[in-house]
Amino acid sequence: xxxxxxxxxxxxxxxxxxxxxxxxxxxxxxxxxxxxxxxxxxxxxxxxxxxxxxxxxxxxxxxxxxxxxxxxxxxxxxxxxxxxxxxx
Amino acid sequence: xxxxxxxxxxxxxxxxxxxxxxxxxxxxxxxxxxxxxxxxxxxxxxxxxxxxxxxxxxxxxxxxxxxxxxxxxxxxxxxxxxxxxxxxxxxxxxxxxxxxxxxxxxxxxxxxxxxxxxxxxxxxxxxxxxxxxxxxxxxxxxxxxxxxxxxxxxxxxxxxxxxxxxxxxxxxxxxxxxxxxxxxxxxxxxxxxxxxxxxxxxxxxxxxxxxxxxxxxxxxxxxxxxxxxxxxxxxxxxxxxxxxxxxxxxxxxxxxxxxxxxxxxxxxxxxxxxxxxxxxxxxxxxxxxxxxxxxxxxxxxxxxxxxxxxxxxxxxxxxxxxxxxxxxxxxxxxxxxxxxxxxxxxxxxxxxxxxxxxxxxxxxxxxxxxxxxxxxxxxxxxxxxxxxxxxxxxxxxxxxxx
Lengths: 88, 402
Prior knowledge:
Helix content of chain A: 40-55%
CATH class of the largest domain in chain B: Alpha Beta
Radius of gyration of chain A: 12 Å
CATH topology of chain A: Non-ribosomal Peptide Synthetase Peptidyl Carrier Protein, Chain A
Oligomer: heterodimer
Strand order of the largest sheet of chain B: 5-4-6-7-1-8-14-13-9-10
Number of domains of chain B: 2
Largest sheet of chain B: 10 strands, mixed
Strand content of chain A: under 5%
Distance between the termini of chain A: 19 Å
Order of helices and strands of chain B: EHEEHHHEHHHEHEHEHEHEHEHHEEEE
CATH architecture of chain A: Orthogonal Bundle
Shape of chain B: globular
CATH superfamily of the largest domain in chain B: Thiolase/Chalcone synthase
Shape of chain A: globular
Number of strands of chain B: 14
Largest interface: A-B, 12 and 17 residues
Helix content of chain B: 25-40%
């Protein structure tokens, strides 16, 4: 697994959006990418499986979650943080 | 068209093992939700639920019966016994032939499946008990009620997720109203509080880790419950002729499909079901004093349901009381409408409105009278019971005071 966390997260998001990873940019929001609440829950599941982490996310109160989903960049940095905490 | 009345009610659920205990708990705003006591609970991220407490199958069922009765069937038989005994009916001859059973469940014998998958996959066993199939099948409960009380008419099981028991009771109502049956034993049962059952719900990320707070601005999801509610629906003239106590009359039923999304509810689909039940009952919305809400405590359901009620009721929406007893017993999925019908009976018969407990903060998107935290006395002539399922399948019943 030589790919960076960033590349792997983008790949997961691209799959949900039915796009090529190269078409996903970090400034995009999930809404821009056409990912709805079900797509988000599936993407979080894929991220948990990929990195073997637990993502704190309740669909009833996404704003209260520690997991920032406001943009692709925000998701990447949240996952990077959780992965580094797991290693540490 | 025949008139249809309720002459018996029975239940076992997180609030009590009888109807009387359940209504007592509802009056007092008791919360039946607590820490889950199930195998492997430490591997769940959701560790609360509305379990039936102090339940010992050995007190009621012998070893042979337990080999055939999944927990959801056991709950059904306990509730059915209470309901049928209250009705005073005995089924023989033509009455038996003209009486049936329609029950709702979503998961059926899920606990049996969970236990036996564990045995073959986790424990590596190559043999399971010979009666696993008749124990886990969704119609097991309906069949055992039919066998136990000699009900030989139309009998089947309805599975429409969270609306299962409302769909079942609606069918039973229509069978009697149309003359296809004289008595129907109906309601629903669920027992999904096992490791696999909770794990599957966890995945959706709509479950609360602390409490079910319907309509409250700080609500954060649903809580699962378990149990059964069973009723005796009877043709009015039959009930009157034998001098039976009538608990309430069922006057309308409507079902609709959102045809939209597999999990997100639709205001329009819900509104069409509510207004459909009113027109089936031939009553104006202003006659309705109480609505037992679907009120799951999720962000999506509660605001959609309130919008649908506001839409159908217009200015009268501010006068109608609407409460969710899921705050007390949790979401019994395929059995939920049946247990919630007890709150409707209490409103009509005793003039007591069950509260929505756990209510902490008003939500402008749920700006109705949700009977927060404390039961209330009120005279109610007509009441509705809402159920809106995953898959967009909606079922609403309309009842009238006897």
